[in-house]
Specification:
- The chain has 13 helices and 17 strands.
- By secondary structure, the chain is of the alpha/beta class.
- The chain has a nine-stranded parallel beta sheet with strand order 6-5-4-3-2-14-13-10-7. Strands 1-15 form a two-stranded antiparallel ribbon. It has a two-stranded antiparallel sheet with strand order 8-9.
- Helix 4 crosses helix 6, helix 6 runs parallel beside helix 7 and helix 12 packs across helix 13.
- The longest helix is centred in the middle third of the chain and has 18 residues.
- It is globular, with a radius of gyration of 22 Å.
- The N terminus is likely disordered.
Length: about 475
């Protein structure tokens, strides 16, 4: 059975907060170090019809960026480790990179962040185990790229960050006592300062699997698999029912220890996953454990809940990974983190549908078949996490000077329920978009709108289309 053939999904899934009750989208890492992977266009078509609304890639592959244009899926692109030093040289080098790699694809492709390097501070420069990459180059490259975004008026739309491994910590337990490694303190202070100043997320690649693999006699398997009901207690009273939350709070404590406790620095889990196969001795790398972990991880991401240390701060989570990548270096486990095989078949079943959503469903064909849901019709809707104040201003404009007939979203109108600002704004934004010829700039609305191929109509509420 193909990947698409395994999924029978509602068309409204990329609009979860408009149709669902406290259910959020999920991010996924889309690596391409494999043979016979499906084309980016087919991948983009698939993901439009799932709860996956954010994708992180490891470069600026133009074929991928083109494929995700006008899909409503947010993209995080990356600067390869080998290119960080070049971008650190001066702002002109960063501007040239941005002009050639990113600028041609926006705004049609919703690029929301640039990940500068990947685990740069804990990666060997030449693989001999001794030479680390220059941390000053990382900080300078991040600053240069942010300056480029500022100069182009894109700093609010596109953020700059860098994904870290848990190895940046001196210790991760107990979470409340965690700090960054002493040798990295100056660099981490500079990075966190930049993130705080620019309202950007601290990215961490957090893998309970590796903690269990390296310490199976001391780490409870269920705790690593996100399901230990008894919990692990921190000396300050926090109780952790899974290791991922403890790892997130360890990062939070390390940030606070730098003196940023009174400033908001969002934490993003830029990678987390579990392999379905491993080498001899990796007994926990099984299909069942991978299915269990990633199913719970998807549920965790959809809930958008916080952690014991900060229960009100939701966490964006990116599952690692979309595909098994048979050309990756390292052990067997490194090549078997995917939810799907290269041919589109599932390695194991993870529910990517939204049981709370209503709407039409389509049975989809395989990768080689056309998708009937991607026709000429397109709609414009509000981004699920767009700032409510901006969305309200957009709604007021559309129903006022914009000339939209908004009677359907007034009380007793067919589109009044749900009585939510994003739902009402979506109706008005779409009407304005359709009136003005469906140009992409007519669905920008100060960065709060997105174009979708999925009909947002529901019940007796019908969204207009050309």
């Amino acid at each position: 059975m193909s990947l698409l053939g395994n999924l029978v999904l509602p068309l409204l899934l990329i609009l979860l907060p408009l149709c669902c009750n406290n259910v959020y989208g999920v991010g996924i890492n889309y690596g391409t170090v494999g043979s016979n992977l499906p084309s980016p266009k087919k991948v983009a078509q698939l993901l439009q019809s799932t709860i996956i609304d954010k994708v992180k890639i490891y470069d600026t592959n133009p074929e991928i960026l083109e494929a995700f244009s006008n899909t409503g899926i947010d993209i995080i692109v990356a600067v390869e480790n080998s290119n960080v030093t070049n971008l650190s040289a001066n702002q002109s080098a960063a501007d040239e990179w941005f002009s050639t790699r990113i600028l041609p694809f926006i705004p049609a492709t919703s690029i929301v962040a640039i990940a500068v390097g990947n685990e740069y501070l804990t990666t060997d420069g030449d693989g001999d185990g001794d030479d680390k990459l220059d941390p000053n180059a990382l900080v300078q490259a991040m600053q240069n790229l942010h300056s480029v975004l500022l100069s182009r008026g894109l700093a609010r739309k596109i953020k700059v960050s860098t994904p870290h491994s848990m190895a940046v910590l001196a210790t991760s337990f107990p979470p409340s006592s965690s700090t960054f490694a002493t040798t990295l303190l100056p660099t981490m202070t500079s990075i966190v300062t930049l993130l705080a100043d620019t309202n950007s997320a601290f990215m961490v690649n957090a893998y309970p699997y590796f903690a269990y693999r390296d310490n199976p006699s001391t780490v409870n398997l269920e705790y690593a698999l996100l399901g230990n009901a008894t919990g692990v207690r921190d000396p300050k009273g926090y109780v952790y029912n899974n290791m991922l939350d403890a790892q997130i709070d360890a990062i939070r404590s390390a940030i606070n220890a730098l003196g940023f406790g009174n400033r908001s620095v969002q934490i993003m889990v830029s990678e987390s996953g579990w392999p379905s196969k491993g080498d001899a001795g990796e007994t926990a790398a099984t299909t069942q454990n991978a299915r269990t972990y990633n199913s719970r991880l998807v549920e965790r991401a959809q809930s958008n809940k916080g952690t014991p240390m900060s229960p009100k701060d939701g966490i964006d989570i990116f599952v690692f990974a979309l595909f098994n990548e048979n050309k990756k270096q390292g052990g067997t486990g490194e090549r078997n983190f995917g939810i799907f095989n290269a041919d589109g078949s599932k390695v194991y079943d993870v529910d990517l549908s939204c049981q709370f959503c209503s709407g039409n469903s389509e049975k989809m064909g395989g990768f080689g078949e056309k998708l009937s849901l991607r026709g000429p019709s397109v709609w414009c809707v509000a981004k699920p996490h767009a700032d409510e104040k901006v969305v309200q201003a957009v709604l007021d404009f559309c129903c006022g000077p914009g000339g939209v007939d908004c009677r359907e979203i007034y009380e007793n109108g067919n589109c009044f329920p749900p009585d939510k600002i994003h739902a009402h704004a979506s109706y008005a934004m779409n009407a304005y978009y359709q009136m003005h010829g469906r140009n992409y700039w007519n669905c920008d609305f100060k960065g709060t709108g997105l174009v979708t191929f999925s009909d947002p109509s529901y019940g007796r509420c019908f969204y207009s289309q050309q």
